Amino acid sequence: MSCVSDCVFSVLYVIGETLGIPDTVMGLTLLAAGTSIPDTVASVMVAREGKADMAMSNIVGSNVFDMLCLGLPWFIKTVFVDTVNPVEVNSTGLVFISATLLLSIVFLFVAVHINGWKLDWKLGIVSLFCYVVFATLAILYELGIIGNNPVRLCAD
């Protein structure tokens, strides 16, 4: 990671700790949005050039890559760094969020198919609405407002 990335993560950590916001909620909102902005800009640029297939590939590929690459740092830590202890994930909603992200990829393909394989404002509105619903439910789940999940803050 670059120095800028380290500073951003540190600042977000301090803000989250100061406001009493769990790390998972900070990751679901601010960090996720920040890492997705370059993908969004690239998708918009190629879609405006009439290359919707590239835009879709970027969107789906980015989500799949983000989800599946979680295994790499876990693998490295458990095989090379600390072979005795498993990696503890500080997220009560990991299964919920992962399943929802997987379903969002399926939904995106179905929605694009129903829309005649065209990316237009209607599909954009539907996708934005689904994202807001997902983010809201994920945050409420992580905060323990819905579900039976107590809020866990990171241990120092």
TrEMBL record:
Q: Where located?
A: Membrane
Looking up Gene3D superfamilies in the UniProt record yields: NCX, central ion-binding region
The source's superkingdom equals: Eukaryota
What is the official name of this protein in its record? Sodium/calcium exchanger membrane region domain-containing protein
Q: What is its main location?
A: membrane
Which GO terms of the cellular component aspect does the record hold? membrane; trans-Golgi network
Report TM segments. 55-76, 96-114, 121-141
Q: One biological process GO term for this chain?
A: intracellular calcium ion homeostasis
> Which GO molecular function terms does the record list?
calcium channel activity; calcium, potassium:sodium antiporter activity; symporter activity
Q: Where is the Sodium/calcium exchanger membrane region domain?
A: 2-139
Pfam short name (any one): Na_Ca_ex
